[in-house]
Amino acid sequence: MALVNVHFLNLQNNYLFADIAKKVNAYKVMHPKADIISLGIGDVTQPLCPAVTEAMHKAVSELGTAEGFHGYGPEQGYAFLREAILKNDFLPRGIHLDIDEVFINDGAKSDTGNFQEILHWDNFIGVTDPIYPVYIDSNVMIGRCGTFEDGRWTNVVYMPCTAENGFVPQIPKDRHMDVIYLCYPNNPTGTVITKQELRKWVNYALKNDALILYDAAYQAYITDPDIPHSIYEIRGARKCAVEFRSYSKTAGFTGVRCGYTIVPKDLTVANLTFGREYSRSEELMQASLFSRSASSTEGERINVNKLWNRRQCTKFNGASYISQRAAEAIYTPEGKQQVKATIDYYMQNAHRLLEGLQQLGFECYGGRNAPYIWMKTPEGSSSWQFFEALLYGAQVVCTPGVGFGPSGEGYVRFTAFGSHETTEKALERISRWTR
Ligand SMILES: *Cc1c(COP(=O)(O)O)cnc(C)c1O
Whose CA is nearest to atom 14 of ligand 1? Predict the structure, then answer.
């Protein structure tokens, strides 16, 4: 008898973007002629830059020749791309990494979702709230999150990020965390973290033997010179953090698929089952609050880089040669300039949206170092109520903040990934609607 993984049945069915599509479609049925502008889903719209498409054409032609053909590539990615990453993304920031610490993938979603599987099932995870849903859902699938009650998973530590605390997550004093997900610049709030704040997290992780999974998918949007692009700008981070990067938002690779993960060789995790069998009970859960970090230093330490490499070699056959050549091209002088031009284009939208919505009297956050505007809904209006009001009143689609977690209630997200024209038109409509 084939039995299902019951943890999958615990997943909350409401996939945010499917719900949004349903509501938008219902509106379209009633108003077939309506011209709807979407500032909802976080997908890019501008075409790939010429440096990238030229590299892809060249790679395709190569593959069609006897000398240039490539079959399976290294699971970790081609050296030409891994070297370009070290040289361009890290060395200029004073970060010296080894080529074996770079793992090329088919986008950051895969690795942010997969990484948890090399960790014991009863780690306590901590997340900033609201967050990118992949972090929690991938842990739900393996049975790590407990049960879903009142919009929250019982075994997940939620750290609210709201206007009240300036979107700065506070480290809880009464709950222990083993694995912490951080995403900066943040999706969905568009806010960033200072070096000083990030240092607090690294120090927490070092002190408590915790692991930080740092998602830097939007680092290319940082304009403020003091904001860290990588967690490895913080001393000690190599001992406690993994970093995820993606070319999706950086260079419009949402359809091409390529990204990478940094797993430092200095990173180790405890092996609690070493020496004794470990099973979850209320007592142990309580005990682990106090004793786990102490006991973990005694057991065997496991090298995470080796373990991740083993996992990848078994389950992943590498990103395509064409995607990796495409990614390499963004590090050429032309590539860098062209990619920057597209990012600047989106950031002009972000600035326009931020300024325009603020002029209309809305309270807005983000939009300065990230392509997202996080807007407080007017007094008394929930995320979904505002979403519907905006759809019916202005034919503009935003994303209800509550879809990203309980602390997202009372906010909506606008993306800067549209064209200048649609962004401008959306603002005009919102302006007319509010008058
Ligand atoms: C878009 C996004 C990613 C990247 O996903 P890809 O799989 O690389 O396309 C990762 N993390 C966050 C928070 C994102 O918004």
Answer: 217
